[in-house]
């Protein structure tokens, strides 16, 4: 469970929330609109370091909402929500302080990241500036934990605090301090061994954060939430077995994730919640717990699920739109006809309604991959169950409650259910905004920014708008130029200048 890796802490109650550092990031946690990705324009892929793109600026984030009710807000760790403008930075999106990285991955010790050849830079920040003073080779998991301990040690536990810890682990590159490998010498596969070592270090870090909550007087009035945003990557040591697929796909192995809530304030402790819960639910749940306000005119995709988790009540959620990506590679055999004229099944999408899950288009890598603990062979030699998608296939239907491993496709047996879910997809899609996935901006190169990844973008109007003094100088030069041209046109006239 501690393989989850973004940690939120809030006190007033103290709320700690932990999630994976993989795709889609924390967007749904910090910021919640109508239906997650399709109403932000971020429904395709991730935000690349060189793209002029970031979390939309026109909606309130979770830390901004918590600040409204007196919370101190701090972020430690990985942002990965865009930084091309200063307004996109964590300190402009509701956090009082920020210590961490802006990109999605990087070296755990040097904090450098190369996005492509010649596009490399330093990526460690203290608020809005590069944290060069911390370029001393400390492993990021341990470095971030030390900062969390410092924040808690200096904060008055009688005052509310929201602390978001986005650990870099266990994302690639697979790196860990040597002593954490000692217990995993029996794991032959090197990636799996490194992953296990990274996870042990992360487990120790979460323990140290929990101890700090107790030491500094936060624990008894705290809520610690661990959540995740996607499944593991088998090629980088992860495992989703026995679920199908992997990170970046719409199969359960890519989208189903473990999570837990730990708090002295829970009414039903030690219970397992099997209700439908989505990552977007944390936004209204945490705001409600903090006694904050959500504008009633804003229709959120998320639901307040605290009573579901704490008391075992039924979830208010009946469906989840996993995503609709209109620009992902289209399924060659998809069509409107295959979607009964309701939906173009060439489009990559996935939706869950109660027990049913529907996928269309190209769902992504679809194998079942056992843990590679006892094999050091390459991915082409793995003992996975390879699946060749049936010719002409672009629609799948599963009863996820009965078949969480997605082994029995029921789309041909229940065409009525398929049509119902396709109509729901269509309804969601009518409210989607256009995808924002801009091309690479060469101005993003860290070489142009002192060797650091950071904001680079300036509005064109601001770039072209001259200052008052520049405008005056330009006007004087223009007048002088016209005067010279006039004199050249009339060489015998010298405008008030006598010749000696």
From TrEMBL:
Top-level lineage group: Eukaryota
Keyword S-adenosyl-L-methionine appears in the UniProt entry: no
GO MF terms held by the record: metal ion binding; sulfuric ester hydrolase activity
Swiss-Prot/TrEMBL cofactor(s): Ca(2+)
Renumbered residue ranges of the record's region Disordered: 433-500
PANTHER family per record: ARYLSULFATASE (PTHR10342), ARYLSULFATASE J (PTHR10342:SF69)
Name the UniProt record assigns to this protein: Sulfatase N-terminal domain-containing protein
Lineage: Eukaryota, Metazoa, Chordata, Craniata, Vertebrata
